[in-house]
Here is the input.
Amino acid sequence: MLSSARIEAAAEDLLEAEESRRQIGLLSLRYPDMTLDDAYAIQTAQIGRKLSAGRKIIGWKIGLTSRIMQQALGITTPDSGVLYDDMVFEDGATIPAGRFIQPRIETEIAFVMKEALDGEVTRADVLAATEAVVPSIEILDTRILRKDPDSGATRKIVDTVSDNAANAGIVLGRARHASEAFDLRWVGAIVRKNDDVEATGLGAAVLDDPVTGLVWLARRMHQYGQRIEAGHVVLSGSFIAPIECPPGTKIAADFGPFGAVSVNFE
Here is the structure.
């Protein structure tokens, strides 16, 4: 376990990287023995600083839900991060140049909650607590290097979790649906990058059912004294691989009858 001083130092370094747009080195190299609990402690330490600076928590994101992404990191569990009020962009918005370091996007089904979820919840509990399900885009960014230039080492799960699960922004589509209006395993999207089809996917890629992600998240958060609150937005996990978004990129995700959502990068 890392000392409280090291946890606070890592949190401060990550916040500075976000502010300066300059990435820091891999925490997994700095602290080879750090654990997943250490990583969540670093993430939590940033929450306090964000709230003190005037930010508000508006929800949570679930990441690493697909088998291909878990295999890439050599893990068997998802991860999670915090959504803040300054991360929200309107459908069709253009992200100003320099807003992020190395932005990428993923497409997901977002859950808007009308009731809290805490602890050992079931699939039925999640559906009952959901006000609406919504097409969405998650904007990813990395305040930690993806690859160490000297050793060639790549990020580990502890790096990603420490870095707020690489979350940077969210875009919600305008369509709203009741939680049981669709079989979410079959809700998917055709994702275009600059008018070319870049990716396609189905909700079933997310733990076989996007609802399963919220069951996992409620249980994980309970272990750390947190819970999903009424009014929170939860990104349930991506069903496509991340798409790089250099300047000039236009992203449009067509979810068919479920709706659509888009975002552009200046």
Summary: The CA atoms of residues 88 and 235 lie 12 Å apart.
